[in-house]
Give the backbone structure.
Amino acid sequence: RFLTSVLGGQTRTGTKKSQGRTVLASNVYECLFILDPNRYARDPQGVAASIPEMVEKFSGEILANRLWNEQKLAYPINGHRKGTYWLTYFRMESSELVGFNRACQLNDFVMRHMATKVDPRLVEILVAHARGEKTADELAEEAQAEAQAAAQAEAKQPAEATTEVAAATDE
């Protein structure tokens, strides 16, 4: 059976055997956590460090990991009316996701979480956005806009020079 996934911009197809078990191609997941705001306020570094530890425990690789927002919840969860939202993108084998979900349920910091598989065509864009970086397309668009602005500035300079010369000759 063959599976396809995108790894670092390159496509890898297939499965392989590793120590007697089948290893499927890894996928990129987006996971949004709602964290206990009281525990996060007391120990932000500890809570923030626990999320990558959970991912790495299940042979995952963190691609982006950041605080998203703290806001009021739509309904109370465990008596909390506010929640700290934490956004993480990671790469993990699909067979490890069940264990990761169970670890999230058992973690005291995590009130709720939702992990979804990211379409391979969107991985680069979403991870760059989460990191606050610009994608290659955005950089190309900026360069093109700068080139057009420079061309327009050059086109205006000769036109201004000819009008100045014409005004000087009229006097």
About this structure: The chain is about 45% helix and 35% strand. The chain has a mean pLDDT of 82. The radius of gyration is 25 Å. The helical segments are 37-42, 44-57, 97-106, 123-131, 136-170.
